[in-house]
Specification:
By secondary structure, the protein is of the alpha+beta class. It has four helices and eight strands, in the order βαββββαββααβ. It has helices spanning 19-31, 95-111, 138-146, 152-158, and strands at 8-15, 38-46, 51-58, 69-75, 84-91, 117-125, 128-135, 164-175. The relative contact order is 0.22. This is ABM domain-containing protein.
Length: 179
């Protein structure tokens, strides 16, 4: 998500009743024609079978209500193949807090690499952060959640004043896109 032509990232969550509906909705979203300015769409399946997420990369300013701006992309294994993408949002008291926390997270990841983490993409929208991370497997992400590194850098990330965890989802890529 760190491309010079990228004007914004839009994440959309579509609720579904069951895995069958999830598959049919994902197929429809993957096959749609892209309007001008929409450079790429990645379709993600929530592992619980209750949602389809789309991550849209725009080269012109999108008209969606919430448009995230790419802030940092960290690639830890460019040759790795993700089996799980985790999409999470966080909110903070101010825009500056969101930007500062994003920088602290990038610093923590660089200083203490996480096993199974292939890439981390951080985007901001005012006081909100969109965190999209690619993992080797859902189990690798779960292991990280259960055993977050015990370092000063990670304590600053985890205990940032005013940090509010938003909704998150572990997903499998249904239809990747290249940008």
């Amino acid at each position: 998500m760190n491309h010079p032509d990228l004007a914004g990232v839009v994440l959309t969550r579509h609720q579904v009743d069951d895995p069958e509906h999830q598959q049919s909705m994902a197929a429809r979203l993957a096959e749609r024609d892209l309007p001008p300015g929409l450079a790429a769409v990645t379709v993600l399946l929530d592992l619980r079978g209750t949602a389809v997420l789309t991550q849209e990369l725009w080269t012109i300013p999108p008209t969606a209500a919430t448009v995230f701006r790419s802030r940092r992309s960290l690639i830890f294994d460019p040759d790795g193949t993700p089996d799980c993408t985790v999409v999470t949002t966080f909110t903070f008291p101010t825009d500056r807090d969101a930007a500062t926390w994003t920088d602290l997270l990038a610093e923590a990841l660089r200083s203490h690499p996480v096993e199974g983490l292939l890439a981390q993409h951080l985007s901001t929208h005012g006081d909100s952060v969109l965190n999209c991370s690619d993992w080797t497997a859902p189990e690798a992400h779960q292991a990280f959640i259960e055993n977050t590194p015990d370092t000063a850098a990670w304590h600053r990330v985890s205990n940032y004043p005013g940090l509010t965890h938003g909704p998150g989802a572990r997903c499998r890529i249904y239809c990747p896109s290249e940008f």
